[in-house]
Specification:
The complex is a heterodimer of chains A (124) and B (346).
Chain A lengths: L1 H8 L23 E4 L4 E6 L9 H15 L5 E6 L7 H8 L2 H7 L3 H15 L1
Parallel strand pairs in A: 2-3
Antiparallel strand pairs in A: 1-2
Chain B lengths: L7 E8 L6 E6 L10 E6 L4 E6 L5 E7 L7 E6 L5 E6 L4 E7 L2 E8 L6 E6 L5 E6 L4 E7 L3 E8 L6 E6 L5 E6 L4 E6 L5 E7 L1 H4 L6 E6 L5 E6 L4 E5 L17 E6 L7 E6 L4 E6 L4 E7 L3 E8 L7 E7 L2 E9 L4 E7 L5
Antiparallel strand pairs in B: 1-28, 2-3, 3-4, 4-5, 6-7, 7-8, 8-9, 10-11, 11-12, 12-13, 14-15, 15-16, 16-17, 18-19, 19-20, 20-21, 22-23, 23-24, 24-25, 26-27, 27-28
Classes of the chains: A alpha+beta (124), B mainly beta (346).
């Protein structure tokens, strides 16, 4: 189930800074998605393209939006950067998993545009 | 009490109408003689809904307050006399609505925060309002004649997003909780200068180890419960009167009493103490828990209601007019009214 899910979800999200998909850049791989359908829980671990990548929060946001739009509402989603892959890993993870911060960010039209752009190939 | 037997939280009503998640709820504290309870809800659809009970016992939405905020309405709070409703929004403003003759009118807009306002609270006197924001500050506003509000203090101290503010039930003492994991207590020195008089942290006070989302005082003002992303609830002894300027070295502080761990599997977004001192908690695991204080003081779980909603529970609030009625709000867009039955306090 993990493999099918991965193929369906992650392959087409573009990295905001490069013209390649997250899969092509190894930002997200098959192994980095853990699903427990019984508990309705998903955890995605991703590796930002560069250690100080300021786009880490944007990539994380894109992943979250894609998952929310693709999964049944009962799913709980946790997103994190791969341990050791980012300079301010704890801070980024905290922000990505604060749903109030995520909700407010997605009401920012500029940020929403970037996210929609990164997700656009998937809904083409 | 009705009947006997084990405690049960029975779903009595389901209020639908919001087209996005419901973030927060507020019961009108004073609805006048004869009138039933009135509930306000607000959410991601940028609207505030007012709910009332019809003569046949069913609940209906009597008003929709929209076209004022242009982003999520995160929190709402009634003034102590029940005549005003304050609504705090991600659009960085707080609106004040006057409720008279059954109609709502926006009579003031409080501006000043740099970004999203997360919470609003009225002091027991009704003349002070507090707001807090992602801009890390807490603002105190004083109500002037003619629906004017003057900012009397901008409180700095939190190092991150402030999630909620709440006044003490009868003292002019304000508490704020934050993404910086701390709880701050604010009071004025008698000269209208507001200061942080205590900070409750993980290091010094058995405080929380992650974002603190909410707080609630009991009626007597000697207990405060806080809840957090660390998946715990903490109960504090708040009997020390922090509104008085400290004299001498040996002054009392608020202190940690108990930590409730292992009851919720995800972030606890809300906690509320009823007039009977029952703690209700609502969390990202879709579960509502109820606790009561027993000798020690210690806390006993009364019941755990799993799948209370289909998604995260953002707010739980006991009804002031009926201490066995609980309202809950969820990401699933609904508000539910529950009745607590059975020998809850045994």
């Amino acid at each position: 189930m993990s493999m099918d899910f991965y193929r369906f979800i992650e392959k087409d999200i573009k990295d905001p800074e490069h013209p390649y998909s997250l899969e092509e850049l190894n930002v997200v791989t098959e192994d980095s998605i853990e699903i427990n359908d019984e508990l309705s829980h998903v955890r995605v671990t991703f590796t930002p393209t560069v250690e100080h990548c300021s786009m880490a929060t944007v990539i994380g946001l894109c992943l979250r939006v894609k998952l929310i739009r693709s999964l049944p509402p009962r799913y709980k989603v946790d997103i994190r950067v791969a341990p050791g892959s980012h300079a301010t890993e704890t801070a980024v993870n905290k922000q990505l998993n604060d749903k109030e911060r995520v909700a407010a960010a997605l009401e920012n039209p500029n940020l929403l545009d970037i996210v929609e752009e990164c997700l656009s190939p998937t809904f083409a | 009490m009705d009947g006997g037997g084990a405690a049960e939280l029975r779903e009595a009503h389901r209020l639908t109408g919001h087209s996005d998640r419901v973030w927060s709820l507020a019961w009108n504290p004073f609805t006048g003689s004869g009138a039933g309870p009135v509930l306000a809800s607000c959410g991601g659809d940028k609207a505030v809904r007012i709910w009332k009970r019809s003569p046949d016992g069913a609940w209906h939405c009597s008003d929709v307050l929209e076209d004022t905020h242009n982003r999520t309405v995160r929190s709402c709070a009634w003034s102590p006399d029940g005549k005003l409703l304050a609504t705090a929004s991600f659009d960085s403003t707080t609106a004040i609505w006057e409720y008279s003759g059954g109609d709502f009118e926006c009579v003031a807009t409080l501006e000043g925060h740099e970004n999203e306002v997360k919470s609003v609270s009225w002091s027991s006197s009704g003349s002070l309002l507090a707001t807090c924001s992602r801009d890390k500050t807490v603002w105190i506003w004083e109500m002037q004649p003619g629906n004017e509000y003057e900012c009397v203090a901008v409180l700095q101290g939190h190092t991150q997003d402030v999630k909620m503010v709440q006044w003490h039930p009868f003292l002019d003492v304000l508490v704020s909780v934050s993404y910086d994991n701390s709880i701050k207590v604010w009071a004025d020195d008698g000269d209208d200068e507001w200061h942080c008089v205590q900070t409750l942290t993980e290091a010094d006070n058995c405080g929380h180890s992650s974002t603190v989302w909410a707080l609630s005082f009991n009626k007597k003002g000697d207990r405060m419960v806080t809840c957090s992303d660390d998946r715990t609830l903490k109960i504090w002894d708040t009997s020390a009167d922090l509104s008085q300027p400290k004299t001498g070295d040996d002054h009392e502080s608020w202190r940690h009493l108990s930590t409730l761990t292992g009851y919720h599997g995800r972030t606890i977004f809300s906690a509320h103490l009823s007039s009977e001192d029952i703690i209700a908690s609502g969390a990202g695991d879709d579960t509502i828990c109820l606790f009561t204080e027993v000798e020690g003081p210690s806390y006993r779980l009364i019941l755990k209601k799993e799948k209370a909603h289909d998604m995260d529970i953002n707010c739980v609030r006991w009804c002031p007019q009926d201490p066995r009625m609980l309202a809950s709000a969820s990401d699933d867009g609904t508000v539910k009214l529950w009745e607590l039955r059975g020998n809850a306090l045994d």
